[in-house]
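Thread title: Can someone regenerate the structure for this chain?

I was given the following input by a collaborator and told the matching structure tokens would be attached. They weren't. Posting the sequence so someone can regenerate them.
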Amino acid sequence: MDPRKKSACRQTQDTNPSQEKSCGRRTFLKTAARAAALGSAGLVSGCGTGMFGSGEETSLRFKEYFKKNYRLMTPAEKEETVRRLERLARIQQGVNVQISSREPVEGVLFGYAFNVTRCEGYMECVSACVQENNLDRLSQTQYIRIFEMEHGQMSPEAGDGKFFHEVPVKGHHYMGVQCFHCQNAPCVKACPTKATWQEPDGIVVDYDWCIGCRYCIAACPYYGRRFNWNDPQVPKEELTRKQHYLGNRMRRRGQMEKCTFCVQRSRNGKLPACVEACPTGARVFGNLLDPNSEIRFVLANKKVFRFKEDLGTDPKFWYFID
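Best answer:
Regenerated them for you:
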């Protein structure tokens, strides 16, 4: 052991006999376990209450640290988890959030279509997505990217995804890119912790099982993944408080994020925020398994294509032309 650590350990033992080792990860877990069992903040005082918070907060955080992957939880465990996260939000941030664990709706597979001829590049979809999904304002994280391209170009890779000028520009058109919720998703195969998987209605992520390795962002050919470089900063008055465990609840630094088709909305029969915000009607969303849905009408009656379809990922996102 480093001599400095030995010295610090001796000093801690002298001032607090109940603290047998320095305040490292192992000691924290042992001490937090006692605090969780006894509901006492005093047992962790050796490491400072500023590090762990109140006894209640310590107990809640301890249980969060050792919870199962969401897919393995029973309905009762899922309910217990979301109630715990709601309580932590009140303690740590002073806000009341409502976190849902609603399951996929039976007989629903979501699909998305983007009208290339209607999009004018206004970015209302991006702003609505940032607001709805509690994205970090400091790093300006965005799930949606809009590419500006010259007429004749049909691949976002040939466009400008960082334009900043008045739109629309004559002789140009616009294409939006986000998570395509592929049926044969490379990101699902690449994830070493199984933090991302495919549910009946789309691809989801259990943020708390993400280790931030970024294998998924390397595997995704559609620019669909985002990495949290810092703890998200969202003004309290702008926080969307109706959340979903697999959707727009607050993430932490070092975790991957992506578009979930606004699972907190779509599983409740609402359209994703970007679809509602589009002023030109360029975005179409619906149930691919419903023959009477608008998305099925588009696929049957419009000229449609998919980005990089030759890769065999089977994305649930189409582009079409009027």
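The mean pLDDT is 87.
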